[in-house]
Amino acid sequence: MRLIRGLTNLRSLAERPDSPLSQGCVATIGNFDGVHVGHQTIIEQVKAKAADLGVPSLVMIFEPQPREFFQGSDAPPRLTGFRQKVEALRDEGVDLVLCVRFDEHFRQYSGMGFIEDILIDGLAVRHLVIGDDFRFGCDRAGDFALLEQVGRERGYGVERTVTVEVDNERVSSTRVRKCLQDNELATAERLLGRPYAISGRVVYGRQLGRQLNAPTANILLKRMPALRGVYVVRTQLPDGTDCDGVANIGLRPTVDGRRPSLEVHLFDFAGTLYGQRIRVEFRHPLRDEIKFDSVDALKAQIDQDIDDARAWIAAH
Fold first, then answer.
1. Would you call 155 helix, strand, or coil by DSSP?
2. 249 burial type by CB count under 10 A (0-12 exposed, 13-18 middle, 19+ buried)
């Protein structure tokens, strides 16, 4: 899979004689937050049509996501960070991912400008798979009908995405997010097609965990997570092996309460993980985040969390 970062790189790629877009592509557009089973079905539509036409499949995503641009810190929590999303799209067999920077300049694109500059001149799109409620361009002036109209004139096809339901309800990133916020991890797993997990690079923390006899691998989070609390987790280590443990995700109210983070205590692990990427899979909720009156009270609760997590693992 090839990642194309930004419209400048897209234009440079399109001008090359060996460009993978020389014969066009089949594309879809969206946030693809979580890459859930609904997204996976859309990708299968794209890949099938791309195979028919003999051209690459392409997914266009945005960074930041549009709601993050417009709403800032009030935007909904992300299910996946940028790198984790791209890795999930790669695992689904997408040929190309175009990441467009969503900024003030991009926001001012007209609907026709978006179609002409990006879809036609940039991607040479042969076919587009898109939701019939998709809106684009300044003030959301562009819609599915405009894409169809221009497609008839300029020679590309447009088809609607298939709606996927689980338990007679449409699968969406919003629904997955709500399941996670309600600690309905089993339902979230069905909607995602895999257990919910967060990947990230281990950074140096305040070493408080070591002082509490529960050293942790710390991952700083750029945005507030959909999950908050203490969980039984399974962590995939850099060498590919798995390690059980217990994790706190949220704001650490007893410590500082300012920046979101994920702290994982790995059972029976004595190595060093600083600077390396790990994947933390959330298996079972233990409790909400609590602000304790003292470090001693925090230590006592951590000891209890470890006992509770080990007991749950032993029973499952």
1. coil
2. buried
C-alpha to C-alpha distance for 178 and 103, rounded to whole angstroms: 28
CA end-to-end span of the chain: 37
pLDDT along the chain (316 residues), means of 10: 95 90 96 96 97 98 94 92 96 98 92 94 96 84 92 96 94 97 97 97 69 73 91 96 95 69 92 92 95 83 94 96
Q: Tokens 């299968």, residue?
A: 44
**Other C-beta atoms within 10 Å of 290: how many?**
12
Count of beta carbons in the 10 Å neighbourhood of residue 240? 6
3 state SS of 292: coil
- DSSP string of 189-206, one letter each residue: HHHHTS--EEEEE-B---
Residue 211 is predicted with a pLDDT of 47
pTM greater than 0.90 (yes/no): yes
The pLDDT assigned to 133 comes to 83
- C-alpha distance from residue 23 to each of 14, 17, 26 (Å): 10, 11, 10
Dihedral Cα 248, 254, 255, 257, nearest 10 deg = 80
